[in-house]
TrEMBL record:
Organism expressing this protein natively: Pseudoalteromonas aliena SW19
Highest taxon above the source species: Bacteria
Entries under PROSITE patterns matching the protein: CHEW
Xref: InterPro entries: CheW (IPR039315), CheW-like_dom_sf (IPR036061), CheW-lke_dom (IPR002545)
Compartments (UniProt record): Cytoplasm
Protein name, entry field: Chemotaxis protein CheW
Pfam families xref list: CheW
Main localization, broad class: cytoplasm
Length: 161
């Protein structure tokens, strides 16, 4: 078991030296998005939440996660996508995001978890600027994975509420 941990640690160190990051990908509105897997704390199935009055529409409420109150953000609404009913595949990805004033634990609801990809940083392409408004501010980059394109999310900008 110790050799398995050492092997995994060595593999992660080698990937970091080569500029390779792993991304957890998920689906929303038939598109695939990814977040740095090092920010992911856990993946939970949808559960009832406590609604907060006067919160922005995309803040669905909070849950109690082992004594920590975690805000739940509907990422579809945050991105301006049409809302959908939560179903059996709906999951909450609990992420820890570092900000200048410290780190925060936040849950984001997504339609379904997809996969984990190892992506070289140099493979990520910048988002083209197609208008005066910065409507792609939440996307850190785009990357081709096989025949599909994955949008890599900048969680700091997305969750800076």
């Amino acid at each position: 078991m110790i050799s398995d941990q050492n092997q995994l640690s060595n593999q992660l160190n080698l990937q970091q030296q080569q500029g390779i990051k792993q991304f957890l990908t998920f689906m929303m509105a038939d598109e695939e998005y990814g977040v740095d897997i090092l920010t992911v704390q856990e993946i939970r199935s949808w559960e009832e939440i406590t609604v907060l009055p006067n919160a922005p529409e995309f803040v669905k409420g909070v849950i109690n996660l082992r004594g920590t109150i975690v805000p739940i953000i509907d990422l579809r609404l945050r991105f301006g996508l049409p809302s959908t009913d939560y179903g059996p595949l709906t999951v909450v990805i609990v992420v820890k995001i570092k900000f200048e004033q410290g780190s925060k634990i936040i849950g984001i609801t997504v339609d379904a978890v997809s996969d984990v990809y190892s992506i070289a940083e140099q493979d990520a392409k910048a988002v083209p600027n197609i208008s005066d408004s910065n409507n792609c501010e939440y996307v850190a980059g785009l990357v081709n994975v096989g025949e599909k394109m994955v949008a890599l999310i900048d969680l700091q900008k997305t969750m800076n509420i």
